[in-house]
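The record is kept unedited without comment:

——
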Amino acid sequence: MLPSLSGPTQQYLSDLQNLNSEMTTVTRQLSSGLRVSSVADDPSAVEGIMMDQAQITQLQQTQTNLNNLKPEMDSGDSALQQAMQNVETAIQIASQSSSPLSNPFSNAQLVIQVQGILQNLVNLSGTSVNGRYIFSGDLDQQALYTLDPTQPTGVRQLATANATRSVTDSHGVQIWLGKTASEIFDHQNPNGTPATDNVFAAVNSLLTALQANNSSAAVASIANLKAANDHLNQEVGYYGIGQARVNDNLTTISTALTSVRTDMSSLRDADMATAAVQLQELSVQQQAALSSRAKIGALSLFNFLA
């Protein structure tokens, strides 16, 4: 039976094992870039790292939601700007209808123009982005309106929809709640009749007057057309506020992500330059220890047989 190792030899082997363990840890840090890759590496840092990771996930999800929303808001704003331009053209046409130069031929041309305007407005109410009808609220897979000359507003509502899906910031505060085509283009009174600022109804009233060659009715439609234009202008403002909120939040999130990532890096990531120097120093110590021990032959076979 081999005799037990002497005290100095046991200490030597223990020190060498610790040295090798340190080298393994530093090598792992250099290969992974992480100072803390498990709880055992630094238990006191784990809670902070987990909190930072959770915050980063939350911020990134909000960032993704807002970046997905931006094209819809930009398209919505553009559609409403175009709708205003169409209504303004309708106001100009209504003014032209009372001109002394107006005649059956020119009146027929105006009818065609206003029919085109109403069609444009219906098309704009069905604006879609990435397969979603942005003015259809919760029924975002279909347009809500189509042309129908038999209806008082000149259009037929295909479905009734509400907009209940909102976008919030990382703290749960609502940033944006979309509006439906019914709210924007087909504003109704409490009793279900078209409101004075109903966009579809205002343009259709001009169309009906022109089709009847009734210039006084065409001029009278200007009041509702102006109200409709004011209503659209308010909706453009609503979208503008939403766009500003989204952009501000994206800037805030970007700053927050940088701060949290920096904090997590300080807790988790290895200092590569320091680790490289440390590994070199440990390697020198290891070689020196092995060389020194070999010279005195402390672990030779003769020590065990003595």
Remarks:
- Residues 43-96 form the longest helix (54 residues).
